[in-house]
Predict the structure.
Amino acid sequence: MKLEGLSILGQGRVTAAGKSYAAINPATGLAIGPDYFWATTADVDAAAQLAAKAFVEFRRWSGQRRAGFINRIAELLEANAAAIVERVTLETGLAAARLQGELARTCFQLRLYGQAAASGLCASARIDHADPNRKPLAKPDLRSMMVPVGPVVVFGASNFPLAFSVAGGDTASAFAAGCPVIVKPHQGHLGTAELVGLLVQQAACECQAPEGIFSLLYGSGREVGIALVKHPLVKSVGFTGSRTGGRALMDAAAARPEPIPVYAEMGSINPVFFLAGVMNQKPEELAAGLHASVTLGVGQFCTNPGLIFVERGNGADVFLQKLETLIAATASGTMLTADLCAAYRSGVEKFSNFSGVKRQAQSKADLGAGNAQAGAALFVTDAETFLSNHHLRDEIFGPSTLVVQCRSRAQMLNAANQLEGQLTATIHGLPEELQANHELVEMLATKVGRLVFNSFPTGVEVAHAMTHGGPYPATSDGRSSSVGTRAVDRFLRPVSYQNFPDTALPAELQESNPLKIDRLVDGKLIL
Ligand code: NAP
């Protein structure tokens, strides 16, 4: 596939004009062609108009037909895996093996959403039969199902150039819901975005989807991104990135004459609590497990464990010594972009200058030709300092972590109570310790989307029961998940039909269940 550097507008391309930017190889700092031209205000309007028009037909597609389209995207990604992985490796500095894994995950994810659409899980049909004899009032026939909200704008994430980008979780879940998608790609992988975007366009064409079911518009977040979010025909937004970026989109969406939801996943420091019993049993093993999680993918995961609580004692001392040795010996890695690396380095400097915080270890890293090389860092403080300095709860996006030493279990609980909303919290303990620390478990459940026991938070399984979300500021809406089949709910809304004749009902709600989908009938799940 030849890359042209042009936005995708329905079945066509936008012509080259105006401002442009280029993809940069973070390992070398060199531009990788071609130049990418920014979409104009007229392109934004054209994409939104096309999407709204496509929605009229797409929303009527059966779940089976949506699944066919989504599965075709997965097939095309697999058929072009070598070219995609080659380009994304150049653009992100991520290892080819990691990207092959991410591509497989992306295809698995697409198929899971396809299955959710085909099985009726997305429609979530409910039927309450009428009871004309009910006293004092007759009960009406009520049937409800979830319907798509309309065109969705998706902001690709920097750190998952495949799984949370053009054909990633937000796009796949919006398609499963029946919503057209307009992607605003991330600058960190412009060429990958075009390659994948062209394959989605091809799948749409092969499946005879209405034009406008998919567009992809290059440009900056502040211009093209905000213009998309403000467009009156856009009905929802999916985003993964910084709190500043997510907040800007939330504010723009809320200020519209018709406010719309923004599902922003904005980061988290993912606290890990090591209870004393397990710490005394295997401190070195725990340090090795934590080190692997902190440094995985040069620390560029939203589930990276950035805050660690330990109870003071012999086990914790051995743990810290081991962690210090491992962090100091960590090889430097290429971060996704020079900007992310600069932000990481400045975060490390900020923590180093806080009184009461010790930089316990840092691995050496020259900036490299692309100004994107980073080493790992370990900070240590006590609970009093942690509680008195709220900046210590800030995310440092990269391979860094802060260990907080607590004098008692009560102090650990108090520190946990001060935390903001998080994607995850992890507890390491013996089973009986978990029982004894039930207050900690219950409190953390009020603050996070996922509680992890005796494991590490990095590695987010794509499954029906996964919650990748959490109260603000981890996400803009703690009732949602951006991974797993619950992610589809973000782009759906319920509609009830009261006393409708059977023939006038959507197939999902007709009495004979012609689509053979799972439904809740008179309060019972009928499979
Ligand atoms: P980002 O700066 O938030 O950018 C993400 C997307 O949002 C880009 O497309 C960007 O557009 C757009 N954007 C940013 N600020 C905006 C604004 N004020 N108005 C409109 N659009 C805006 O995120 P990033 O580049 O991926 O990384 C920066 C930081 O985000 C990291 O240091 C880290 O703290 C955090 N992060 C968190 C996660 C997570 O999983 N939660 C993942 C990655 C990064 P343009 O850049 O094209 O203008």
About this structure: The first strand starts at residue 8 and ends at 9.
